[in-house]
Amino acid sequence: MRTILITGPGGSGRTTVAAATALAAAREGTRTLLLGGDRTDTLGAALGVPTGATPTRVSETLTAWRPDAALSFRDDLAGFQERASAALDLLGASRLDPEEVTPLPGAEELALLRALRDAALAERHDLLVVDLPATPQALALLSLPEELRRYLRRLIPSERQAARALRPVLGRLAGVPMPAEWLYETAARWDVELAAVEAVVDDRDTVVRLVAEPGPAGADAVRAATLALALRGLRPDLLIANRVLPEAEATAGSWLDGPVTQQRKVLEEWQQDHDVHGVGHLGRDPRGADDLAALAVPAVNTMSSTVEWPVVDRLAEDGVLVWHIPLPGAVRDELDLVRRGDEIVLTAGQFRRIVPLPSALRRCGVDGAGLRDGELRIRFAPDPGLWPRTR
Fold first, then answer.
1. Is the pLDDT at 175 greater than 50, yes or no?
2. What is the pLDDT of residues 3-53, one digit of tens each?
3. Which is it for strands 311-314 and 276-280: parallel, antiparallel or unpaired?
4. Sign of torsion, CA 376 382 387 390?
5. Each residue of 270-286: b (16+ CB within 10 Å) or e?
6. Cβ count near 307 (within 10 Å)
7. Which of 89, 177, 365, 367 is the most buried (most CB within 10 A)?
8. Both 240 and 338 in a single domain?
């Protein structure tokens, strides 16, 4: 199943583009699921059909679904209280009733991730179109599975499960209760679920599309989003310039002349670095299937959004291995690089990612780094004490 993740700055029309993309694919006979995460029914407003926690049949080949974050959160909390009942009773804690539980910040994002995983595993559709939140929240959402798995591995290392038989003895010796079996089982289950979401995002059949209006604010948002996606090892397969004004009507001295000149400049800049697809302005806010069909959204293609970070062997020439990391739009003065154990903490402007080192580089020390042509190149020199000796 192919997946299209659509995001863009707030107010750029990303929900409308997502709905139009799903509708266009469905009209070609593709079994399509349109997934949205907004608390309000902006998806239903675009489609002209209300959407909610139960998947809605929009047409023979199109289904829309907006997961209920509150219901998902209540189910998770109820399950946690059940598994941790012994510990809660020991602490004298009172249980929370489902009726008094409201979702915490981030519950919508977690519900959307779970729905994304469930839809991918169900394999009932040929295409999944996801209306992600606005770009900053979407970027955090795409990074969440990797970050949470890293936290779980640090806080509850799986290798400690090997000592489960010794846990009662260790607890008596230490004088403190040892982690219960349910904690490790829960951590393992969460890790599997998060890995499934991460696999969908990183799959070569998943593409990311950016939606933005061709103006100064849109240009700034696209630059930031492109860099943040690159740090995640992703790139947009298309940049959709939305609400493009008609140049033919921008006569000299008319009110359209200034905005059209501005959008032309931004479009020329975008075309230097992106595959740009323009969607014309309808002169009104699109509502319903007829308006969505009038939008010239791009078709589904086969281009992947994943980007390789290759390690180049230059041991014979320079005595180093070079890790090539594409970071288009990165600024040298805003880059920071820290080696910590078997990980690299990489910061580019306001974005940061902690990346595990490839196995070969774990036996090396950082020998320097440089940014050239939108690519960060990190040099690693083999550690004589760890590197295999040649005969």
1. no
2. 999 999 999 999 999 999 999 999 999 999 999 988 889 999 999 999 988
3. unpaired
4. positive
5. beeebebbbbeeeeeeb
6. 15
7. 367
8. no
Total structural domains within the chain = 2
Residues 192 and 325 in one domain: no
Residues 229 and 320 reside in one and the same domain: no
pTM for this model (two decimals): 0.84
Q: Are residues 287 and 347 in the same domain?
A: no
Cα gap 87→83, rounded to integer Å: 9
Domain assignment present for residue 299? The answer is no
- Whether residue 152 sits in one domain with residue 15: yes
- The sheet carrying 343-348 orders its strands as 335-340, 343-348, 351-356
Hey, what are 90's tokens? Answer: 């020991």
Clarify whether residues 282 and 155 are in a common domain. yes
Sequence-distant (6+) residues with CB within 8 A of 138 are 5, 7, 132
Closest CA to 327 of 287, 370, 268: 370
390 domain-assigned: no
Residue 314 pLDDT > 90: yes
* Window from 36-40, 63-67, 83-87, 364-368 with minimum mean pLDDT: 83-87
The range of the structural domain enclosing residue 376 comes to 311-382
The two tokens of residue 254 are 């008319």
Residue 106 CB partners (closer than 8 Å, separation 6+): none
Question: How far, CA to CA in Å, does 132 sit from each of 1, 8, 43, 228?
Answer: 18, 8, 11, 15
Asked if 108 and 25 sit in the same domain, the reply is yes
The single-letter DSSP state of residue 41 is: -
